[in-house]
Amino acid sequence: MTFLKATAATSALVAVAAFATGLTAGEAAAQIRIGSVLSITGPASFLGDPEDKTLRMYVDRINAEGGVNGEQLELIVYDSEGDANKARTLATRLIEDDEIVAMVGGSTTGTTMAMVPLFEDAEIPFISLAGGIVIIEPVNPFVFKTPHTDRMACEKVFEDMQARGLSRVGLISGTGGFGKSMRGQCLNVAEAYGIEIVADETYGPRDTDMTPQLTNIRNAEGLQAVLNPGFGQGPAIVTKNFAQLGIEVPLYQSHGVASKSFIELAGAAAEGVRLPASALLVANQLADDDPQKQVVVDYKTAFEAEWNRPVSTFGGHAYDGLMILVDAMRRAGSADPVAIRDAIEETTGFMGTAGEVNMSPDDHMGLDLTAFRMLEIRDGDWTIVQ
After folding, report:
1. Could you tell me if 336 and 241 lie in one domain?
2. Structure pTM?
């Protein structure tokens, strides 16, 4: 097992052996320790890598501008490699050995849920970057999240289908934590949108051909659209197989593929695919009077200039989590975990890359459906569905 550690003083990512101890030069200057467990490598690296890059970049910027309440931040980042058991072990280390005051991390629903009980028991605020609604429903006092939920994705997709007169839908879902959760949410809300699920297929995380499942869906009587809850390479394979089979109904994906890498993996087959996502992917297409435009343009510009790669919504989730945390610490005037938790829960009117955040004791995400934009892939890029 390996971990990655970033310090504000050095502004560098230092890789060391898993159970090494000791401090890097200059680390004594850091006074507020915050932690992160991310899927930086492994099958979910497309989530964790931009999250890691975002956190490091903005912690450096915050410290260069004077830190938080006059104190510097020290960011400690561990790589779970997407493994839930490793995530739990590393979260324990953050709590017991590193003595962090707050956590921004958890790239996937599976790794997040493995860590939730630890942060609840330790009474340390944990802002997750994963999509599953199970993270915040039911509400855990010390657990929050920044991305839109899988239930919201189902609702946004079904809303768009309604507008297009589509009601007979086939599902093909990944069996991982996110895909399984979103499938369940879509089944739960379908009736409210007049949607009939006429086919319901699944695929495993290591499957490389979904043609049999898609053939079953294609043969469903009266099929009008297909929705694929999932993330990683699976949805790209589904998209390619969908095109190879010549299925002519609209194909929808989830916000779990909201990065340029999906378009690159799916290639020409991605043309016409629709999905709900944050405004970040279409930052420059927003109207000048859109209240979110400045935030997403600034983040996109900074990230792409720093790392010379396209922005993704996943890095945006990390930006939102860090900035919500920093805002809460400033309002609390304290680095006490309970005071920080209370201030996070009181967050209102915060404009992030995912939308406007208004949290409460009953809502530890604070986004509504208007925070989602419906996008369509055209000519190898994102466009806003008007």
Report:
1. no
2. 0.86
